[in-house]
Amino acid sequence: MKIAVAVNSPSVNSEISDVFGRSDYFVLWDTQSISKEIIYNPFSKTFDEAGIQSAQLLIEIGADAVLIRKIGLNAQRIFDSAGTKIFLCPCEKPETVFKLFIDNKLEIYKSAEDNYKLNNQTEIE
User: What mean pLDDT comes out for the span 52-56?
Assistant: First the structure.
């Protein structure tokens, strides 16, 4: 299984990025071989659709799961349609979040539509 996490700099010890599509790098961790690879995100500085293009990049390189802090609705839909699982990332360092993932202690991110409905509910008085 390949797990991706957005990070701020090209190091496996970098802090996890607060944004997904605009992060400059991803750490790709292969749970089978226990290898880690730094992937440059060529879409981080694009004018539009950085999240969508970043999601497509990770799907193309075989990410089975993505560990994030925040993600846009369109990028989330891309992952949902590809069957890529998205998990909330509660900590600062990739090593810590990878351990939480292996220990099955991360919360799965709801579907794009569920999150949209949740964030756009209006109270009826």
Answer: 96
